[in-house]
Amino acid sequence: MPLRSYGVMTGRVVDRRRENGEDSPHFQIELVDDGGARYRAAVNVKSQESPSELRYLVVEDFRHPLTALLSGASTGWTPLPPGPGGPNLDYIRGNVLDPAAMRLLPADAAGPDNDLPDLLDHYVERATGDPQALLHVFGQRWGPESTSDKIFGFAPGNGVHDVHMNQGNSAAFRRDDGVWQDGGLLFHFPGSSQWVAIFLAFQSQAWHTDDVAGHALDGTDPRKQPDVAAAMRIVAALVNPVGPAPETETVTVINASPAPVDLTGWRLADRLKRSCPVPGGPIAAGTTLTVTASDGMQLGNSGGAITLLDPAGVKVHGVSYTADQVRLEGWTAVF
Q1: Which secondary-structure segment (H or E) carries 309?
Q2: Which residues, listed in sequence order, are joined to residue 79 by a DSSP beta bridge?
Q3: What mean pLDDT comes out for the span 131-141?
Q4: For position 254, what pLDDT does the model report?
Q5: Pick from 207, 226, 245: which residue ends a domain?
Q6: Which long-range contacts does 149-154 make (Cβ < 8 Å, 24+ apart)?
Q7: Phi, psi angles (nearest 5°) of residue 71
Q8: What is the pLDDT of residues 22-61, one digit of tens each?
Q9: What is the pTM of this model?
Q10: Are residue 178 and residue 287 in the same domain, yes or no?
Q11: Is residue 1 part of a domain?
């Protein structure tokens, strides 16, 4: 079953604490909302399963349609029902990251700037020193509790955990699988108009999951999938053609591999899973193909996502774009 109470916690960072331990160490962050209520974000930095190092990705200039949905949002806790269209995180369907770009870091290593808590502390410290900065923490809520918080001492205890990918889990944590309920950290620094995203995943999690329960698809190997870039990739899209609607929108894909790829049965999909066929047949190594959107697939000018699916309906590659990237008519967005 999915997480019981998924959503996003938004507030200003006021403190942090590095929590060591062999069982399940966390990096603890204290936030406060505009009403003075305090919350704790418990961020996993080590897996309970082997291998213990987490995969992470930091995007220093994060551009995605969900930032527009978060801008101006109220502080405090906002519940998010599962599904596309809202500011929910889904590492696979929302095209917020490229799994091949994720790297590994240990939970504790001697010296500065060489473990996951060190990396998290860099951005948390920056947010603590910026009175305008906001942190949006996606995950599962706990509390309010009848006791004080065990880390920072504020009352009542209140916070968010599961701040990591929450699908494709191993058998031990399969119960937490779901779609559009992944965790993560999004820092907003209004003074520099910058968004910084931090995404976390366990090495035991699979990157191909079903669209209903978020369970790992049969035959997938979580140890290998994120480490190899896809042979077929989306490289450009004409989202806002010149002229009145309905315009002819196009998506350009490239075969980045050294061998031909048969595209028979492949499809392109938008954020709401509306899809259109890709012309079948082989595409030579190193060449591109421009596909015209059809069959109800729509590339909205207010931001969206585009996903490339193989004949089995499994995601091969995906991109996202913001309204600002496609505001000029006739210009092609390059990914």
Answers
A1: strand 303-309
A2: 7
A3: 97
A4: 98
A5: 226
A6: 149/38, 149/40, 151/17, 151/19, 151/28, 151/30, 151/40, 152/15, 152/17, 152/28, 152/30, 152/38, 152/40, 154/30, 154/38
A7: -60, 125
A8: 666 899 999 999 999 999 999 999 999 989 999 999 999 9
A9: 0.91
A10: no
A11: no
